[in-house]
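All the exercises in this workshop are built on plain-text protein records. Instead of coordinates, the fold is spelled out as a row of discrete tokens. Once this layout is familiar, the rest of the handout is easier to follow. The record below serves as our worked example for the rest of this section.
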Amino acid sequence: MTNPNTAPLAQDFVTAAQVPDPQRYFFHDPDLTRLDDGTLIIAAPQWGRRDHRNLGRQLRLLRSDDGGASWEDLPTLPYEEGMVFVLDGQLYLFGQKEFHRDILIATSPDRGQTWSDPVRVIEGPIWNISTAMLQRRDYTYWAMDWDLPDLTHGGKVMVRIDRRRSLLDPAAWELSNIVEPPPLPDSLTRQLFPPENPLNFRWPNNFVWLEPNTVEVGGQIRVFTRCVIDQYATANLAAALDYDPDTNQLRFTQFAGWPGAQCKFFIISDPQSRTYWMLSNLVTNSQDLLGWGGRMEQSGYHGAAGNERRWLFLHYSIDCLNWFPAGCVARWPDHANRSFMYPSAVTDGDDLVILSRTSRDSGDQHDADLCTIHRVPNFRALALDLHRGGLAYARVRPALLKHSSAT
């Protein structure tokens, strides 16, 4: 019997896009969406690498009509950041001409070939990438990062979109209060990476939260966000926030154990199985207790040991808080400076189609040179039935339980 934790579920990938030169360019935060007719669309920001920033930034778009087996390039767009999403059967583009500045929305009538003129629907230091949105009947909820004066990604804000209006109408977009980061308890960090440590990545603070996912659990709207603590040394910890739509208020609730939350994770809500699925990067040596740091840095590895991104795993949950392992999606077992990371995913019938921002030939696990597609067939069969045996099951089958106790 194959072990999905050691034999990857989707190691054989399709390269959807690659940069012209991996030493000069990289993909920043690509995104995947699926149209109602099965068409797959990728939006992939392509930037010049640190020593080639003069090469500029553009948004590359790609389309597949065969489930991700082959891809065609669509016209590029002049955005530094962008992602595509479908709402009420319509394809939309979330774009930013300037990194972390304003939200522009455009729509496409022809599956991404052409786009309407963009409309600025929110002004301010706001940002997000491909993370989970919540669709309710009248509103869409999507938590985002809001930069504070002294901290990029510092604030969190809930964006509420009125589906009864056109998304191109700024009046359809509303913001909640802005939540500042909570104090980091001393017990959650060993303070291994002060600012003068040469292995620091780029985080100016000991605690940075970013890239929030928005879900609904038992009728409650919840937000789970990545946490970078002590330059990744404290791994596998997320921050949870709760949102009240009646008051339009967002609030920090707690820190929560979360596999791979030191890097960007992505949540898929699957009503068919009443299960949440989550993609994230597991890490092997976050505090460099094994003494790998110096050799990793010499190999081109970027940052401290906990910034490892070579193990992409799939997990599942029924409460979107406690996660069971479904298996390894893809891996680079012998290359710490390679990665499968920044995932997004869509369900396609019984399959899960995953987009990875992948570093193979750039010599740096952060600066990805590929966008790769991984298909996990019959993914729901990877999960135990976690609903059976609980109180919810007792409410559904009270007569059976009464009979069982009598005998």
Notes: Residues 236 and 261 are 5 Å apart (CA to CA). The first strand starts at residue 14 and ends at 18. The longest helix spans residues 398-406. The two ends are 38 Å apart (CA to CA).
